[in-house]
Amino acid sequence: MKRLVSSLCAGVCALTVGTAGMAQAAPARSTLIVNARVIDGTGAPARTGAVRIERGRIAAVGKLTRRAGEEVVDAHGEVLAPGFIDTHSHHDHGLFDMPDALPVTTQGVTTIIVGQDGGSALPVADLFARMRKTPVAVNVASYVGHNTIRETVMGEDYKRHATPAEIERMAALIDSGMKDGALGLSTGLEYDPGIYSDKAEVLTLAKEAARFGGRYISHVRSEDQYLWAALDEIVEIGRATGMPVQVSHMKLAMTDWWGEANRYLAVLDRAHAQGVDISGDVYPYEYWQSTLAVMFPKRDFDNRASAEFALKHLAPPEGLLISHFSPEPALVGKTIAQIAALRRTDPAETLMRLIAESRGPTAEESVIGTSMRADDVATLIAWPRSNISSDGELAGRHPRGRGSFPRVLRVYVREQHVLTLEQAVHKMSGEAAAHMGIGDRGVIRPGARADLILFDPARITDRATSEDPSALSVGVSRVWVNGGLVMKDGKATGVRTGEPVRRQQSGAPRT
């Protein structure tokens, strides 16, 4: 099995360039959207009004009169909202082969934040240059990934702490990424090679990103056995650096912690009360997707006791669904329990054998694990400092890649009333933009970028499931990105006005 950083990087670092094309500018004439129920992304109540788009930006909001020659779109009472911002996305994997990004736009997402879990393009400038050659329908921002730079510096000799000289070389790569416009540093501390880093290495590199006004986002060191210590680590990074920090895809992925979402949030609330700018993102599912290896934090894959512990406390055999397995593709779609029955081995032995089979230099595997509880997910989503993410891919097996944002509106607004419609839109737009440090997107106000979506709140629905992960969401009728209409009635228009979103510069780096 390849290290996760390699597969994360593959979508951006190793794809062949698709058909090149000139970036499509926003329409020269203005567009007036009338009869809309405007939810502006700030959390304010909805109001009836009109919005004018001009030169890729929002020109006016309110009671507006049509100009001569202006395109008019009648919203017929649908909700006009800022385009959603996916703050933890892997939709860059294959994006240049699927530049219309329908799995993203049909959710109402207009900006994806990539370079997650410690895996990013390196240099980050290559990703943005690629967008100029092959225009895409969505905006893209990126972090610089710790795992990627650690692999670059340390190569195959990564199962140890880095030396001061190696950390200095990593810091230089972070400097380069920040100068390219990266939002900050991302880590994936449950994955190789980042799992072998010590806290001092991570803190030193976070401070380097902080010098440039960057942010820190982390798949923390443990989401199960060592969860509480992992939360303490990200809090300490926020406290020591003064930079904003965000916990990626917050979850309690261990049966021992089920029902303790309020304890989880209390850790973050105490830190915030003490001056740490900490937030989190959540996807609306009780199951994750990762590697089988992540269930073995000590990397003792042949330890039967560790395998039995994982199957008892993290996810049961019937709750582990193989989503990719290159050594034996026929196993995809089967659970560990089913494979154990087929092979006539017990589940713990089956788990260990599958990992052994996937440890080759070209082998790859992934699994969908059901190990969270619905009420915990709802509590995390309702937290005032959480925003929504997908952690999804364009063609991944997990339905979150095509359904996360409509699912929030269906489940937590329409069905369970955990959030109001305005609160949900805020978490997916204005609050997400604030957590990423993006000042001109995520809100409907004059001067902001014209990333807008029109949707029916009574109809918007996720359709992707584990059995049919390719089903697109429905209910979003139009999507504008930088003023260009990229999606209408579930179909791509061929307009690709997505832009690189770089960190807003804050002067020279601190010394």
TrEMBL record:
Where is the segment annotated Disordered? 491-511
GO biological process, alphabetically ordered: N-acetylglucosamine catabolic process
Q: Report which residue ranges the record marks as coiled coil.
A: none
List the molecular function annotations (GO) for this entry.
N-acetylglucosamine-6-phosphate deacetylase activity
The source's superkingdom equals Bacteria
- Alphabetized UniProt keyword annotations: Hydrolase, Signal
Q: Does the keyword Mitochondrion apply?
A: no
Q: Which first-to-last residue range defines the signal peptide?
A: 1-25
* Domain (Amidohydrolase): residue spans on this chain: 71-286, 332-486
Record's family? Belongs to the metallo-dependent hydrolases superfamily. NagA family.
Name listed for the protein in its UniProt record? D-aminoacylase
Q: Which organism is it from?
A: Sphingomonas lycopersici
